[in-house]
Specification:
The chain is of the alpha+beta class. 33% of the residues lie in helices and 25% in strands. The longest helix is centred in the C-terminal third of the chain and has 19 residues.
Amino acid sequence: MHKHNDLIRAKYSVMTMPEQLLLLAIIGKSDPREITAETLIEVTVSEFKDLLSSNRKDSYGELKKAVKRLYNRSVVIDNPDPEDPRLSSTETRWVSSINYFNGEGLIQLNLAPKILPYLANLKDNYTSFFVRHVANFESSYGVRLYELLIQWQAKGSREIDIDWLREQWQLQDKYPDMNNFKNRVIKPALNDINEHSNLWVKFGQRKRGRKIVAFQFEFGLKDDISTSKTLTKKQADSLAKVGESYPELYARLKKAGYKIKYSEKTKSLKF
């Protein structure tokens, strides 16, 4: 699945987790190079339930709610046409129309025409990421932070200006107290990334005088982690490769620097 980096850097209010996962699934279901404004993209209730790991009784109602909320949102893309210096930004919706099918457990939708160019895989100017790395996030800010970090995966670090981050996430007037901002936005996002995704991440902060002006993130793929870290069994299981036995998983994670023990008696990892 590919998402153009200009779209990742665009300004829009942070969505609920169902909306974000639904959007990622929509993008992932189709080849961005072949999508047009007339392309009908179908999402079923069963697919939606798999995304949310949900057993809610009214899953179709939840799907309709997520699609409706996504339909009502807009995104602002800065400098959409470098050839036209007069054009500073474009505001567009994500979704232009929705078809509901009561009793059939599905919806169909069309993406807005102005958003289509930013979904295409244009040469190497894209970010690759997978729904499975964010599907279990609890923080709605975790997905957007994951996107911003994975762009810089090769470098392994990124400093993000706080005012820029607030503007991108449409949080200019929300959580004005810095401790509240960190506790309600940044730390839950980091917890989700470390707990559920394929990245580990640490963060620091840059000050100008007594004011915090930027966050400094250090991160990498969990398979490449070089510092010692204790894992829960759930975390270890999430790192297992297809067909990999517990001894093989143990050896690989130990080599990567994790603190774990393998029990030959119970054939399981001990922590």
